[in-house]
Amino acid sequence: MTFHRVPRWRTALGTTLALAGIALWLTTPELLVAAMVPVAYVAYSAATSAVPVDDVLTVERTVDRERPFPGERVSVTLTLTNTGSTPLPDVRVVDGVPEDLPVADDSPRASTAIRAGGSATVEYAVTARRGDHEFGSVRVRTRSMSASSCYTTDLTASGIDELTSTIPVDEWPLGERTIRLTGQVPTDSGGDGLEFHTTRSYQPGDPIGRINWRRYAKEGELTTIDYRENEASKTVVLVDARSGNHVARAADEPTATELSVYAAARALGGLLSTRQHVGLAAIGIDDPTTGIDPAWVPPGTGAETRSRALSVLDRIAAAAAPGSDVTSRANAGDDCRRLEASIDSNAQLLVVSPVLDRYPQRLVERFRARGHDVTVFAPNVTDGETPGQTIAALERTGAIRELRETGATVVDWDVAVPIELALNRAFDPALATA
């Protein structure tokens, strides 16, 4: 804590002495009276001093996500309360934001006045990065009413003092964090359903409700109506986890891999919340549970599927973290061929990739050739101002154009757009092209 007096009234004191001296020299009472005006300012400055606030100002820090996913935006609120009996006319505050967390919106700095018994808030947002991030103390500076003195101190905020960003195996983003996605898809086989498929000869045991009674009345022949069967859709979320994607727009921003993990987690959460069959594959990294390379979690709806998928996503995020002992490969090798043998022919694919090279195009072409519906969700980390980012952005634009030419739906995600909007576009082609 420090106390500092600002010498802003020295000029007034000098003016007073000069006018008083001239008044005495010239024996002019008017100048002597005029000399008293600056004296009033000097006296006011001396009478008003900044007071220590360590015992009267409390600070509380809250966040809207205590355990965010890597790449998720977290809102932070500082609440400053003046518990004293006198107002604080000039309070300046700077929150101790963790060095590794970029400020995504607003500012952790603020200037305000707080009446006695009143409160003020400072709101800003950070982008989560994998790991544990500790907030520092809150720097507070108060000034006197005359701004002639200031008091600076560091206060410890109550509430949240650490932000942990990880992918917990025992949790899943539910409630408002889920995305409502597709439900069922029609098949080419006949059976129970709503849409007419074929008619066939009656077989003992066929439901009475599916007998074609009109044909029986007309021709005396028992036939059974088959309808096009619907089955729960199977979706495989395929994450491009190659090491070449561990890049970011700036050193203090999340990497493309972290953003991809966040998007994949939100998509998986939305699919599983509606009891759909969903699987996960990851190009460039092995499965932490089975050791299979590439990582592969077969479609399912239960807790085991959820747990294994989260473990894979956590491993991908770990590989992108600086100093991690988990590594991913730069070359995908035979990953695509191995996944082709594992993924059902009727499964939909959601490919999550920043599209920083032409590999996603080759990947999509192979799966489109096998008849899969493919959607590409592409976080954009190339929209910077450096020459390198400009070139990368041009190359990426060309790659996305070629992806769309394959017939795949491509959602180019500007991270400033809420992910709920972007993911809903990914599962609604009409929105994706809007």
Task: Give a verbal description of the structure.
The strands form 5 sheets. A 6-stranded mixed β-sheet has the order 18-17-16-19-20-21, sandwiched between helices. A 5-stranded antiparallel β-sheet has the order 1-10-9-4-6, with no helix packed on it. The protein has 11 helices and 21 strands. The longest helix has 19 residues, at 387-405. Helices cover 29% and strands 31% of the residues. Helix 1 packs antiparallel against helix 3 (36-47), helix 5 (256-273) packs antiparallel against helix 6 (303-320) and helix 8 (359-369) packs parallel to helix 9 (387-405). It has helices at 10-26, 29-34, 36-47, 213-219, 256-273, 303-320, 335-342, 359-369, 387-405, 419-426, 429-432, and strands spanning 2-5, 57-63, 73-82, 88-96, 103-106, 109-114, 119-127, 131-134, 136-143, 149-155, 158-159, 162-165, 184-191, 195-201, 223-232, 234-240, 277-283, 295-300, 348-352, 374-379, 409-413. Residues 169-196 and 430-434 have low confidence and may be disordered. It has 434 residues and is α+β, with helices and mostly antiparallel strands. It has 4 domains: 2-47; 57-165, Immunoglobulins (Immunoglobulin-like); 175-182 and 233-432, Rossmann fold; 184-231, no CATH class. The protein is elongated and about 135 Å long.
